Amino acid sequence: MAVVGAPAPVLAADPTYFADVLPLVRDRCLPCHDVGGVAALDLVDVDVASPFAGRMAQQTAAGLMPPFPPDPACADYREHAARSLTPAEIDLVRAWADAGAPAGDPTDALPPRLPPPDPLGPPDDLLTPDSAFVFDADDPDIYWCTRFDPDLDDPRHVVAAHVHPDNDALVHHVIVFRERGGAQRDPVGSPGFPCPGAPEDGEFLVGWAPGSAPVVLPDGYGLPLGPDDALVMQVHYHAQPGAEPTDRSSVALWYASAPIEREVMVMWTGSFEIFVPPGTSRTVEGECVLPGDDAIELVGIAPHMHRIGTSIRARLDRVDGGESCLVDVPRWDFDWQGSYTYVEPIVARPGDRIHTTCEYQNDGEQTVGWGEGSDDEMCFAFHLVAAPAGFPEHCFATAPDEPVAACGCAGGDGPGAGLFALAGVLVRRRRRRPGAVEG
Ligand code: HEC
Q: Ligand 1, atom 32: nearest CA belongs to which residue?
């Protein structure tokens, strides 16, 4: 399955905005840099873009734009491959800036932005509410859920998913959860129900925020979805000035057409031992060990902390002495969360340990400890894992030298178990600088 991304353009001799830069901007920058987008700079407008040509060249060359919170030197992520610019694209922006950022001929311009292409052709299912949600202007933030019964006769495997936001001046972010046995629950369908926080028993399936690419699992991998399971789409509405008050966002799903070789599930590592008094910084670490006799594959990762987190890392310490970096977010930002799938799944063997490190800085007046509120803290790495039959015996175990439980499986016990299954969410706040952007 190909990594989603635009083909590399050929470097033109005398690049102009309309002929060369706009197509690239449209594919790679407009999800955020459109009129009313998350970033203030409306790069779709040549008069805005041209004076910023030097900054565009500098930010793209430095890897700061498009933003990608994890350090790409840690591991190869599919989402980074899909989002980042090729060296030829970076050179093109530089060549255009060096030439004085010429506009060129407007008739060279491509038609306005098209929605990103679906990764695997037409979806097998497009879950769409029967009626539009109508936003109440008195309420600045609304979390609204719609429960869908995908109406499956037999168990299927989801291999790719993509959220289609309908009104992106209203939609702040979208998270889709798998709800085990949820097809029996009420209400199903429109008009939905208010749902701050995550739905109970909801496992994170896919998320959307500006710039999110469709999630595509590696070939042969799939996430099980049973006839009794429901999907719950949670939309965070936060209107931008002048936004139309209605929305009908939908979720596209692709099911495996051939038998799945490896089912994926969720395990988590981290720590509950969080205690950060006012005016202090703290480092929290947790270690988990893979028991049993079988190797597993780490397919993806979603690091998670709350507002006073400053950095998070996870690494695999191998029993044979080797080490693999799994994720390293050097400047954590609660509003730019993501989950990332590895270009090549990483094999972990019995006895291997996953070490998770979270750092916090508490500038507030209250001590912060572990909790589910967004003013409490968390330290989790959610791992999307392919394990042989026999789960959950193969779930990570807390390392013998750890004082408290630091690991678990989806469907197992413990807070946070069951969240984040297959994902790609970037939660954002309008006109806020992502942690990865400097200067
Ligand atoms: C996922 C969202 C996202 C994408 C995609 C993205 N940007 Fe940005 N960009 C931002 C945000 C947020 C800011 C912060 C600006 C603000 O405060 O509005 C920013 C700022 C910038 C700045 C100003 C930086 C400065 O400090 O002067 C430039 C230039 C820029 N982006 C260029 C680009 C280019 C070129 C692309 C495409 C190749 C791109 N960005 C893609 C979100 C994005």
A: 56
